[in-house]
Write a structure and sequence with these properties.
The protein is an all-alpha fold. The protein is built from five helices and no strands.
């Protein structure tokens, strides 16, 4: 199930975040295992700004672990806006 979450990371659309959150919560996945898999299996294959992907991943974990999904999502929107790659 972690593969499904990690596969959505690079595109990072709202639907991807919602799907990933659902998978994380419904399957009761372990955040540390996801961190390990991201670091060891996916990170070296990601194309683009590595720092942006790292921040995105950590924000996803924060959203997944939060008690209030909407509060974390509001924080997420602010951070994405601040860290968005230049067009």
């Amino acid at each position: 199930m972690g593969d499904g979450i990690l596969s959505k990371l690079e595109r990072n659309a709202a639907k991807d975040r919602d799907d990933a959150d659902y998978l994380f919560r419904s399957r009761k996945l372990d955040a540390q295992i996801l961190r390990d898999r991201y670091k060891n299996e996916l990170r070296h294959n990601v194309i683009g700004n590595m720092e942006w992907h790292d921040k995105t991943f950590e924000l996803w974990i924060e959203i997944f672990e939060s008690q209030t999904f909407s509060a974390a999502l509001n924080n997420w929107d602010l951070v994405v806006w601040r860290n968005a790659p230049a067009s």
